[in-house]
Design a protein that fits this description.
The complex is a heterodimer of chains A (330) and B (207). Chain A is of the alpha+beta class and 330 residues long. In chain A, 25% of the residues lie in helices and 28% in strands. The two termini of chain A are 24 Å apart. Chain B is of the alpha/beta class and 207 residues long. The chains are: A alpha+beta (330), B alpha/beta (207).
Chain lengths: 330, 207
């Protein structure tokens, strides 16, 4: 699990440029007894055909990122965000571009050169060490995409890395597909690695339309605010995967949610219940596709989401695999 | 803001204006030079004009020109139009923001008048199809049609709804740069319009 997660977070894959992450998933699943296809929108669809209702599991491949909007006369790069980059956490961070070029983020607040007053992405730039506009243009173009430099580290059970949103979910689903016992399956199983979640939950909409599942479960990260006192939500790292009740975009299907809870209890898998007010996942789109899909979501509690140093507990990923595996098998 | 219609009393106004009446800018379309025109609603009547002209050409595939309603209030017409026709590829044609004024820093100009069709890579709502966009750029370069990329990745267009229709649609967004957009006196250059038309026609012929 750790190895897969490390490979996944190190793969370049901001929204719309998920090819390398798809490559990792395909490589990991090349020996599995399943059909792997890329759909029209770019989603990677893993199908394990079986008798039973159609169940779609989804995790998104893409991460948030940077995209170049202009290069100034000094060779400094102006950018904007792909998905929800948080301006407060950008200064000083390292950016890795799709062609391997690395840069550092600084700001142009002329009146406050030491500590900027205005924390707006438009006031920031990336220095890639180019001496001139020409030199920068030879390396970077308008539209070139970047990510937080994927510095990965592990300390015991905990991983610190960017892009754990949602490579954690991808790692869970890969591990699940590798370990699922086909003869025990209760469902005709579609495992979808979706694209462009961070810029509007896009891949899940088109793939759900195409597959038309009876049931859906999204696996994504959720914000654990266990570092605040008092806690601002009930989610903690290491206390098990979260079974989502509600987020900023949806309330999950009550039957499916209760079934997940029952499965956890029966198999003595730790779990937490998730009620948050902001953010949403692929489950939001799955639920309201066509005439509607009964949809639940399993979340990996994660600290500091959308920063260069997200933190997860590997036990939560492992328990998420156990939970979903127990759910889909007889 | 208030609108003064020159009435002396509430009663007098109520005879001529009702709650719910729609109000538009009363501006005429004028040329300032051979290449420069001013008027209202260039967002998106320029797109409508482009579609009207392009649809008259002959192509190797069925071409649907969708004049979408209610874009400005939430991309509503495109949502249902795309569902009805389910295209394989869609190009949204627009009039887009140009802030090419002397006191605006280079990276915040968004687009520049006279620099040709504006090709959107990303805006607030969509990342356009990388392969089709590269093809479009190659055609512009081959035919020496000037083009520019939209620099500030803001705004949204019908393309975001069209893209997510059914199993998904590959989308492009191409626009004519317009100054003072969403105001009574917007301004554009005919050469940008003509180059946009040419680029789109050549692109469609290459498909």
């Amino acid at each position: 699990m750790e190895d897969i997660l490390e490979k996944l977070v190190k793969a370049f894959g901001p929204s719309s440029k998920e090819e390398k992450v798809k490559g990792v998933v395909k490589e990991e699943l090349k020996k599995c007894d399943c059909e792997i296809n890329e759909d029209k929108f770019g989603n990677l669809v893993v199908h394990i055909p079986h008798d039973g209702p159609k169940l779609m599991l989804a995790s998104h491949l893409d991460s948030i990122g940077f995209i170049v909007t202009d290069i100034d006369k000094n060779g400094l790069i102006r950018f904007t965000s792909i998905g929800g980059l948080r301006a407060t956490f950008l200064l000083g961070s390292r950016v890795l571009f799709e062609n391997g070029i690395v840069g550092t983020v600084y700001h142009d607040d002329k009146d406050n050169p030491w500590e900027p007053k205005e924390l707006k992405v438009e006031k920031f730039f990336i220095d890639i060490g180019a001496k001139s506009k020409k030199e920068a243009q030879a390396l970077i173009n308008i539209g070139t995409e970047g990510i937080f430099y994927p510095l990965y580290s592990r300390n015991g059970d905990r991983v610190i890395s960017p892009s754990l949103d949602d490579r954690s979910g991808c790692a869970v689903l890969i591990e699940l597909v590798k370990n699922v016992k086909k003869k025990n399956l209760k469902y005709d199983l579609y495992v979808v690695f979706t694209v462009q979640e961070e810029i509007g939950v896009k891949g899940a909409r088109t793939s759900t339309y195409e597959i038309t599942p009876d049931f859906g479960i999204a696996v994504d990260v959720t914000s654990a605010l266990d570092y605040t006192d008092p806690h601002l939500n009930a989610l903690e790292l290491g206390k098990g995967p979260a079974i989502k009740v509600m987020d900023g975009g949806m309330i999950t299907n009550i039957e499916l949610r209760n079934e997940l809870i029952e499965v956890s209890k029966k198999n003595k898998i730790p779990y937490q219940l998730e009620v948050i007010t902001g953010g949403t996942t692929d489950a939001f789109a799955m639920q309201i596709t066509k005439e509607g899909v009964k949809t639940a979501a399993v979340s990996i509690p994660t600290r500091y989401i959308h920063t260069q140093g997200e933190v997860v507990d590997l036990n939560d990923l492992k328990n998420a695999v156990s939970l979903i595996k127990s759910f889909i098998e007889k | 803001m208030v609108i003064d219609v020159g009435a002396k009393s509430k009663e007098e106004v109520q005879k001529i204006v009702n709650i719910g009446d729609f109000i538009g800018f009363d501006v005429s379309f004028e040329s300032l030079s051979d290449d420069t025109y001013i008027g209202k609603a260039f967002d998106d009547r320029l797109g409508c004009a482009l579609v009207s002209e392009i649809i008259k050409e002959k192509f190797n595939f069925p071409l649907i020109g969708l004049f979408s309603s209610q874009e400005e209030v939430g991309l509503r017409g495109a949502t249902v139009g795309a569902f009805k026709y389910t295209p394989d590829i869609s190009i949204t044609l627009e009039g887009t923001i140009s802030a090419d004024f002397p006191d605006v820093s280079e990276h915040e100009k968004c687009t520049t008048l006279g620099n040709g069709p504006v090709i959107t890579i990303k805006d607030n709502s969509v990342i356009t199809d990388h392969k089709l966009r590269e093809k479009l750029v190659k055609i512009a370069e081959r035919l020496k049609i000037p083009y520019q990329f939209k620099q500030v990745f803001v705004g949204g267009t019908d393309s975001s709804r069209i893209q997510l229709t059914k199993s998904g649609v590959k989308v492009l967004v191409v626009a004519v740069p317009v100054r003072y957009i969403h105001s009574p006196v917007s301004l554009f250059k005919l050469s940008d319009y003509e180059n946009t038309k040419k680029l789109i026609i050549e692109f469609l012929k290459s498909l």
